[in-house]
Design brief:
The structure holds 2 protein chains of 2 kinds.
Chain A: H1 3-23, H2 31-39, H3 49-82, H4 95-109, E1 114-115, E2 118-119, H5 120-140, H6 148-172, H7 177-184, H8 193-212, H9 214-220, H10 224-229, H11 234-256, H12 262-274, H13 278-302, H14 311-329, H15 331-334
Antiparallel strand pairs in A: 1-2
Chain B: E1 2-13, E2 16-27, E3 31-35, H1 42-49, E4 57-62, E5 65-66, H2 72-76, E6 79-82, H3 94-99, H4 103-106, H5 114-126, H6 142-155, E7 160-164, H7 172-188, E8 192-196, H8 200-206, E9 209-214, E10 217-222, H9 224-227, H10 230-237, E11 241-245, E12 252-256, H11 262-269, H12 284-297
The chains are: A mainly alpha, B alpha/beta.
Chain lengths: 338, 298
């Protein structure tokens, strides 16, 4: 099948899933009724509980799930291509640990108010993620070069350090333990339109930047010398990819906390459907990531109703076995066999 | 006319100098073979010529422009480097990989046009890869992969090809297949080729000129007959050799000797005479044959 067909089919599946998801929850609403409510203006005169549920609770949360999932998918695809390594996820060079530390500090110090239109905690996680990536990039660079292995090693080392600091802070502030824990496990609950407006644009910008550099990413997989021989400026390209992918990751974390596995799995599924070219893999990973996180969030908010699971727990519980299954059955298509 | 010219270049990595005040002119349309022992700096020289490594001193000229005053993409339209090895762990297909050779011309953002597709098609055909076009490059054999990289360089439509050991790791058939392909295409498309090889006899068979890289510079450059002398080879490689004409083509063939001193005697006795007219028969390598079996047993 043609890649465009796959993309079209999956986009249709995503739309349908989204529509059905809006009806699922404590109050079940039929798809027909949902369409009516969506057609009615937000906050229109005819106030009804269903209208509020859809417009104020489920729709912003659903859109946030889609954007965060798409962001994690595209960022994962970008990093996997940059590192030529299918085991890499969007958090590989320290974004998650930076975000975790930022969040922890914000919660412990009880920071209030808003920053860049973000509530304090998401803002702190955004800043933490970007700062951690910047430090890793700075440490790994030698002159104007940034060797890939140094980047990975610096990421692993800094993540351990930041992780230890977070653990220490949690130990010292036992009273805030559950709040911090809730964030670290990833959750989309209770986020409104504001969270969407402050993360979606960053994710869109970052993903577009990544997608624009698809062909250069393809060439970079041949290694530096060959890519340079094709006229690519390696250092600038790497910086652009890292910056775009980190921006997306940071925004995703700000939107939904630390949600694992989506960014690892979505690019794998995308490649097994449409091949290795980034021009196809990146948008495909976005659609698949959105679909995965949407489904995971549906499960998270319904399976133990009226209570909720953190969505990060669902993605890990479902994602890991699925990834192992993919690994076992399709090594060749994943490009990790042979 | 010179396609590429290195003038007094000193190159190296960090503080270590690999090449010192080296000069070399590559004539347009020739196949110039770089020879020399491991670590002599052949790859470094190619990298400098490809604008991948900036010389510490001296200048590389592409035709008559300093290569570092040109942009990377401008150089990529005119010079293609085929490195000794490259990463092949991303499962792009053969065709997709070769298409990337068009990037220096059509850019990194706009889609490939009909002309690009035609050129890729011709590169696939010239290298016999039409049937493998949809195969992921992670699944290619060594020979197929070399051909893919070569096809990508052809799609790049550069008129200067820099090939770093294109025969490494290939069996006899593919070694000659690759070299023949390079020479045929160089001739048909009027390309200038600089190629590093380890096999001296491949060099004399396929090269229009040879350059020997040793002692941080080029110690000899010229036609195979002029460069391939017993003294020079022994000095550069530290191996005793004799040189005989190729039985069919008459090009010089370098034959290593195992017995110490055998060639010394040979070169003494034939002093002043053309080493190329040494004929086999009473030749030292027949005498040294028993020596080899003795060595093998001891």
């Amino acid at each position: 099948m043609k890649p465009v067909v796959y993309l079209a089919i999956l986009s249709a599946v995503l739309l349908t899933t989204a529509l059905l998801s809006l009806g699922v929850g404590a109050v079940t609403i039929s798809p027909g009724r949902i369409l009516q409510i969506l057609a009615a203006r937000r906050g229109s005169a005819v106030a009804s509980t269903e209208l509020t549920i859809i417009w104020e609770l489920r729709l912003p949360r659903l859109l946030l799930a889609c954007f965060v999932g798409a962001g994690l998918g595209t960022a994962g695809a970008g990093y996997q291509g940059l590192f030529r390594n299918p085991l890499v996820d969007p958090f590989v060079i320290g974004a998650s640990s930076g975000a975790a530390l930022g969040t922890t500090l914000a919660i412990i110090n009880g920071w209030q108010g808003t920053f860049l239109g973000l509530a304090c905690i998401p803002a702190a996680s955004l800043v933490g993620a970007l700062a951690a990536v910047a430090i890793v990039y700075g440490i790994a660079s030698v002159g104007r070069q940034v060797p890939i292995v140094s980047l990975l090693l610096a990421g692993v080392a800094l993540s351990s350090l930041l992780g230890a600091i977070v653990s220490l802070l949690m130990f010292l502030h036992e009273e805030k333990l559950m709040t911090i824990f809730g964030w670290l496990m990833g959750s989309l609950s209770g986020r409104g339109w504001a969270a969407l407006w402050s993360t979606a644009p960053l994710i869109l910008i970052g993903s577009s930047l990544l997608w624009m550099h698809s062909r250069a990413l393809d060439a970079l997989t041949f290694g530096e010398e060959s890519a340079a021989s094709l006229g690519l400026g390696i250092s600038r390209l790497r910086a652009t990819i890292v910056l775009s992918a980190s921006l997306i990751t940071a925004a995703s974390v700000a939107g939904g906390g630390i949600i694992g596995f989506v960014g690892l799995i979505a690019p794998h599924m995308a490649r097994s459907l449409v091949g290795a070219r980034h021009a196809r893999v990146i948008p495909m990973s976005g659609v698949l990531g959105a679909l995965l996180l949407l489904l995971a969030d549906d499960v998270a908010r319904t399976i133990v109703a009226p209570s909720e699971l953190p969505v990060g727990v669902v993605t890990a519980l479902v994602g890991s076995p699925f990834f192992l299954y993919l690994l076992k059955t399709r090594q060749r298509e994943l490009g990790v066999g042979t | 006319m010179n396609a590429v010219r290195a003038q007094d270049i000193t190159c190296g990595y960090d503080q270590r100098k690999v090449l010192e005040s080296l000069s070399l002119s590559v004539i347009a349309g020739e196949v110039l073979v770089l020879l020399g022992p491991n670590g002599a700096g052949k790859t470094t020289l190619l990298r400098a010529l490809a604008r991948f490594l900036r010389p510490m001193a001296g200048t590389v000229f592409l035709e008559d422009q300093d290569i570092w005053t040109l942009g990377a993409d401008a150089v990529a339209q005119r010079v293609a480097l085929m490195p000794q090895s490259e990463r092949r762990d991303w499962p792009l297909t053969v065709e997709e990989s070769i298409q990337l050779g068009r990037a220096p011309h059509c850019g990194w953002y706009s889609p490939f046009n009909a002309e690009d597709c035609r050129i890729v098609e011709s590169a696939l055909a010239s290298t016999g890869l039409l049937e493998l076009r949809h195969r992921p490059i992670t699944e290619l054999s060594g020979g197929e992969w070399r051909r893919m990289v070569f096809a990508r360089a052809l799609a790049q439509q550069a008129n200067v090809l820099l090939l770093d050991e294109p025969t490494a790791g290939l069996d006899l058939k593919y070694q000659h297949e690759v070299l023949r392909l390079v020479c045929d295409l160089a001739k048909n498309r009027n390309l200038t080729v600089v190629v590093t090889l380890h096999d001296l006899n491949h060099a004399t068979l396929y090269g229009s000129r040879l350059a020997i890289v040793a002692e941080h510079t080029i110690v000899a450059v010229g036609a195979p007959r002029d460069v391939m002398t017993v003294d020079l080879i022994e000095r550069v490689y530290g191996v005793h050799v004799t040189i005989v004409p190729h039985p069919i083509y008459g090009t010089p063939m370098v034959v290593p000797l195992i017995e110490k001193g055998a060639s010394k005697k040979e070169s003494d006795s034939k002093k002043g005479s053309d080493p190329l007219v040494i004929s086999s028969g009473s030749d030292p390598f027949f005498e040294s044959d028993p020596a080899r079996s003795e060595n093998g047993q001891s």
